[in-house]
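Lab notebook: predicted structure, single chain.

Context: the supervisor wants predicted structures on file for every construct in the current expression panel, including those that have not yet been purified. This is the next one on the list. No modifications to the sequence; it matches the entry in the shared construct table.
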Amino acid sequence: MESLGGSEFALTSTYLNTASCGVLPRRAVAAITSLVDELAAGRPGGAGDYAALGVARASFARLCGVGEDRVAAGSSLAGQVALVAAALPPGAEVLFPEGDFTSLITPFAIRGDLVLRYAPLKALADSVRPGTALVAFSAVQSADGRIADFAAVREAAAVHGARTLVDTSQSAGWLPLDAGTFDATVTCGYKFLMGLRGVCFLTVTEDAQRTLRPLNAGNFASVDWPMYGPVEHLAPDARRFDESPAYAAYHGAVASLALLEEVGVAAVHRHVTGLARRFTAGLDALGLPAVATDSAIVAVPGAGDRVERLARAGVVASARAGNLRFSFHLYNTPEHVDRALDALA
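Prediction complete. Output recorded below exactly as produced.
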């Protein structure tokens, strides 16, 4: 099993930290560099091309199985989550898995007039009850790689009339997922989508779009691009939730998302889970059992203090919630797995 990236990447380390930040493909580096060079030279192209936003939006829509009219482009996950949080009435109950990602929870907590409830990830579906307005959860847990039971949560939410919000930042790019089966999803683009910070996507069903207010609306959310005065004609679809784009980041995203489309998420899934199985088998042999074994993210409980030692051996991993966390993507190889195991041994 070799890398799926071929010559697209210039890795010089055993990089197993995509859950923190993905590696930029060469083509993305070229696109970003070209834009920066244009700006440095004072040429018109340096301002960035709005068309890149549309190309990235369409590419992401194809990757997650929705129409591009359901995708809003933004710059931060918390900002897009806040749109969903702002739409809830006072006193609404929001259910989260225990220990989920801060940016998914805080926009709801900061309101102060919502009821926030937490349940173990395994019991999330069973914890949905009459009166639950929203179930918000990560498709894959950042701290340890556990994968949520999408079908069970979706069914429980439907039974009790609750909406769903899924953070796919740690799954988009390697785990096949139909975003259209949830009311809303949010995805930052600098992890498994291999982009820069400043790219974030919100998917919203047509029904859910009617519940959200375009609080970040500017001329990018309009039909006719007014330059002065208030926007009078907002876009009729999810684009009315767009924010002003970070052009360099979106120029790079066009290239990175194109690579993912060429390889295919299903192929990436087979590749990374194969590497993860090889790695977890090696961890077991070392007496270091992992939390999850079917995920691109593999975490060893209580071993987070080994990050610096691994770094000295050229293995890049991270520490999260006390766990030693590794994450695999299309540019990783069996040799990376074996080097990491040797360093741990």
